[in-house]
Amino acid sequence: MADTTNFSLRIDNDLKRQSEVLFSELGMNLTTAINVFLRQSVREGGFPFQVRLETPNKQTIAAMEEALSLIADKNTKRFSVEEALKELKK
User: Fold this and answer.
1) Among 22, 49, 52, which Cα is nearest to 37's?
2) pLDDT band per the 50, 70, 90 thresholds, residue 9
């Protein structure tokens, strides 16, 4: 048997309860689930899933703001898809 150690962590009560229900349905307890996560993290050399912010970067926000201002501007020329394709081919 592998040499083991104990560690403790703080977790929201509701999150713990929901996690225990989920992992129980998968046939394991929370300790086993955490060990699976840690082992997979070691194998992957990091998180075993993408960790990222869902907010757009500055360039995307600027493009979105520009698009909104163009939509609001009544002087902006509007094209149908066919007209836009014709303009692009010129």
Assistant:
1) 49
2) very high
25's enclosing H/E stretch is helix 13-25
| pTM of the complete model | 0.56
| Cβ pair 61, 69 in contact under 8 A | no
Distances (CA, A) of 70 to 63, 73, 85: 11, 5, 19
- How confident is the model over 56-66, as pLDDT tens digits? 889 999 999 99
For residue 35, how many other CB atoms are within 10 A of its CB? 13
**CA separation for the pair 43, 49 (Å, rounded):** 12
Which of 66, 13, 40 is closest to 32 using CA atoms? 40
